Amino acid sequence: MNAIQIKNVTKRYHDVTALDDVSFTFEHGKIYGFLGRNGAGKSTLINIIANRIFTDEGEVLIDDMPAKENMDVHEKIFCMSEEDLYADGIKVKDHFKWIDCFYESFDRKKAFEIAERFGLNTGKKFKQLSKGYQSIFKLTVAMALNVPYVIFDEPVLGLDANHRELFYDLLLREYENNERTIIIATHLIEEVANLIEEVVLIDKGKVLLQESVENLLETGYSVSGMANNVDAYCDGKNVIGYDELGGMKIAYVLGERFPAPQGSGVQLSAMNLQKLFVKLTEKGGN
Ligand SMILES: Nc1ncnc2c1ncn2[C@@H]1O[C@H](COP(=O)(O)OP(=O)(O)OP(=O)(O)O)[C@@H](O)[C@H]1O
């Protein structure tokens, strides 16, 4: 109950298997980072959850109801993505008016407040907005909808650094006031590292890892020093990757962090989320 369950979902495009028997759950009331390299299958899964495309095998359940062509489910979920679903010639404020007519859960007052925070001119037509402001408009709509499940597919494309920070800040505040499930698919991992509670990492159509950020950061660390010292310390440990420069080596390790013995010649440091992601998914893109 109260979750998005992905059950044995497979999706193929001709000879490409975009999703390969994927099963996991987005629980209610958490902020997720949905991560993966280019072509990993993120948008495919998001589009399936949002009912824009269908699975070849398996199904998606939202609050225990099949998501496929189900209006009751439709009202619980909103997906903000790069695709332009808004008519070019309509002013932002009129878009708000129309959305208000179609979505019971749309808070028009909040939409205008958010627009003002971003400096979005609601008197402009959609096509007159810059790329960044078109994204801001779509974010504003997503944030002003009081639905239990909100999915952002690459939400900050085209936003400058100030607007990206404002978006993360507003999202967190919104979440604190109104707990719901927020799923953010992004490549800007470090930017969302402080925002997200749990990571789902997808790689070549399969789930590679689902873990809380806290656990990940606790169990991931790097070991640096002369190559032979690093190798000696890492013997028997779960090393997920290396960087090497001259005789120096850095090993990236997952697991319990045992203090380096005196004289071992290695230094242990925390590993950030982006490094962890890069090392886990390093072996070839699509
Ligand atoms: N309409 C389509 N027709 C054919 N192949 C497709 C189609 N959509 C996606 N694919 C393929 O499915 C795989 C997964 O693509 P998807 O867009 O889901 O990845 P993604 O993780 O969202 O990538 P990115 O981060 O680059 O947006 C890729 O190999 C892609 O080329």
Automatic annotation (TrEMBL):
First and last residue of the signal peptide: none
Lineage: Bacteria, Bacillati, Bacillota, Clostridia, Lachnospirales
Origin superkingdom: Bacteria
Keywords (A to Z) from UniProt: ATP-binding, Nucleotide-binding
Gene3D superfamilies for this protein: P-loop containing nucleotide triphosphate hydrolases
MF terms (GO), sorted A to Z: ATP binding; ATP hydrolysis activity
Family annotation (Pfam families): ABC_tran
Domain ABC transporter, residue spans: 4-229
InterPro entries registered for this protein in UniProt: AAA+_ATPase (IPR003593), ABC_transporter-like_ATP-bd (IPR003439), P-loop_NTPase (IPR027417)
PROSITE patterns assigned: ABC_TRANSPORTER_2
Protein name according to UniProt: ABC transporter ATP-binding protein
